[in-house]
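Q: Please design a sequence for this.
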């Protein structure tokens, strides 16, 4: 996915949702995408230059994930802006 277009899509959603932290992340889809791309919590945290415990904490409390980390994960995991929106701006949180 092109970083500039991913940045634009995610920036627009953050503005619409008001703030620099996003709490509408579908953790099930995020974990599934990590697995699909061959990432474990450890390897993802290394790629993001954060500790494993921080990454684990983000998956338990996704509303704590900073916008910059969301953008990095989206660029690493998603093939399209629509896919990123499905994961990081989920509408149906009952399945998240």
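A: Design:
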């Amino acid at each position: 996915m092109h970083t500039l277009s991913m940045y634009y899509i995610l920036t627009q959603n953050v503005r619409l949702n008001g703030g620099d932290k996003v709490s509408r992340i579908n953790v099930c889809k995020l974990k599934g995408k990590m697995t699909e791309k061959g990432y474990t919590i450890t390897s993802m945290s290394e790629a993001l230059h954060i500790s494993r415990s921080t990454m684990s904490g983000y998956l338990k409390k996704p509303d704590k994930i900073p916008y910059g980390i969301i953008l990095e994960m989206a660029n690493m995991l998603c093939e399209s802006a629509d896919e990123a929106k499905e994961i990081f701006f989920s509408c149906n949180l009952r399945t998240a």
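Q: Thanks. Anything notable?
A: The first helix runs from residue 3 to 17. The mean pLDDT is 80.
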